[in-house]
Specification:
mainly alpha, 4 helices, CLS_N, cell membrane, transmembrane helix, transmembrane
Length: 133
């Protein structure tokens, strides 16, 4: 049983390190080229994956990676899920999209109010003037 557990941990560590290496952008790879890290991870159990995880990836770069746990959570240069270089943001995280959405909502409300005033027979008051008492 201990042999099986050791083998499973070794395989899991290798798969994790290999996936992390493949997904890492080339400018964040340290030491040797990415293809050499992949060969090292695959051919040398324990040593290759652990070496990759400790020294192969630049985890202090502006990509906002938070170590191993950062691979699964929101990442960004500000540490709060902000924009990562070249990656699109989700609509609810994009300040430009939210600003445009707010402007669209306000414009539609103004147009709806103007239509309802016209339908009530009051006409459209001149901009900047107050309605007659």
């Amino acid at each position: 049983m201990p042999r099986v557990l050791i083998a499973l941990v070794s395989i899991g560590l290798s798969i994790f390190a290999l996936a992390d290496c493949i997904q890492t952008e080339d400018e964040n790879v340290r030491g040797i080229p990415k293809w050499a890290w992949i060969v090292l991870i695959v051919l040398i159990p324990w040593v290759g994956p652990i070496t990759w995880l400790l020294v192969g990836k630049d985890r202090s770069s502006a990509s906002g990676s938070k170590g191993l746990a950062g691979a699964f959570g929101p990442r960004g240069a500000d540490g709060n899920g902000g924009a990562r270089r070249g990656r699109p943001l989700a609509p609810d995280e994009d300040p430009e999209f939210l600003r445009k959405l707010d402007e669209d909502i306000r414009r539609e409300r103004r147009e709806r109010e103007q239509r309802s005033r016209r339908e009530d027979g009051g006409g459209d008051p001149a901009p900047g003037s107050s309605p007659a008492p």
